[in-house]
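Lecture notes, unit on binding sites. The following record was shown on slide 14. It pairs a sequence with iron/sulfur cluster.
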Amino acid sequence: MADQKKLFIKTYGCQMNVYDSERMAEALGGAGYIATDTPDDADMILLNTCHIREKAAEKVYSELGRFKGLKAAKPELKIGVAGCVAQAEGAEIMRRQPMVDLVVGPQSYHRLPAMEAKAGNGQKALDTDFPEEDKFAHLAARPKAQRGPSAFLTVQEGCDKFCAFCVVPYTRGAEVSRPVDRVLDEARDLVERGVREITLLGQNVNAYHGAGAGGDWSLARLIRELARIDGLARIRFTTSHPNDMDDDLIAAHGDCDKLMPYLHLPVQSGSDRILKRMNRSHTAEQYLRLIERIRAARPDILLSGDFIVGFPEETEADFAATLALVEQVRYGQCYSFKYSTRPGTPAAERAQVDEDVKADRLQRLQALLSRQQAEIQDAMVGREVGVLFEKPGREAGQLVGKSDHLHAVHAQAGAERIGQVARVRITGSGANSLAGQVVEV
Ligand code: 5AD
Ligand code: SF4
């Protein structure tokens, strides 16, 4: 179509931003935009940003700088900034980078089409409100186009926990859960369009308490209901807080077949002194007991986590406690970060740990985590696992998919298997993926 405009979205940060970018692309589809994967021929460029760690805003400004030439060559090109940097910086973005036409915070995406219509030709549009209305209810319905086998679905957003290092409660706002019916409708719609695996998203997903029949539903109840959808083969959820792992959710890991044996359960530190200063409201011991209960329900569950090293006042003994906790848990996969100061958060005001100490601790922690990851991957060799094939692999005749435990698995298989869960015998373990052979049944 001649009048179709092209939209280039670049997404940073977490899976929720990936989901939001899809929804924004769909919303702008109604305004005549189709996606393009290069900024060069775009009529609109949208950066969906992340503010979780240092230099996030600086990265956005330097990325914007790169579009100067494009904007000069095509003045009607619209440039927008969305996501958590948009929320945190607001109008400052347009002051520092006047070629930006539009700044939209994560709670206002449903207003994007109206903002897009207004912005451009010297007009600016800015919205970083936390509006009362549910943005999801006002976002355009997802179009009926066929989808890949795996999809994200946001069920909860925001956070009331206020960990001392974290900007999320300020950028994403208070905890809000989407109503049960909306989640179920969106899930059914995704399945009709070819989705076989849904990952439920929330900054504190296991604090989900969406309105449903008979009152608020827990995440476990929602998962059990989703499991009744024919054609939906797998359910996952992320990210969880240890204090919100209730008995039913633990039990669901044991008795709900569609709930996959993988759990991302960040602890951040193994030192009670630091956990307290982080405002995590649990001890290392409580976390370890919780892991025991989860493993009792689902012995083969693969655990993943997040760690911060060099939090203000962290001593070598505190760090040793983190290493000891990791030794006890045996994680299959982890994310670990140097503490980075976030202005406006309580920890930013405290005595900071030297950068070289942080770097040294991160390297030591990552060496241990990599060893654990490799051991757990190696232990998969010889086992038979379910793999949902998602797309062609790098080599001819090969497909790549995810195992039940969320390992990437490569295997020789025909394209007709994309979207199917196959039984695969694992034959090898590489740096970040497994190799396998489809077992014919
Ligand atoms: N510095 C370093 N890491 C952080 N995270 C959140 N805030 C910070 C910060 N200020 C990490 C936490 C969280 C993950 C999403 O990002 O580990 O779980
Ligand atoms: Fe941030 Fe803590 Fe909330 Fe997670 S639980 S989003 S780390 S404040």
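Take-home: The first helix runs from residue 15 to 29.
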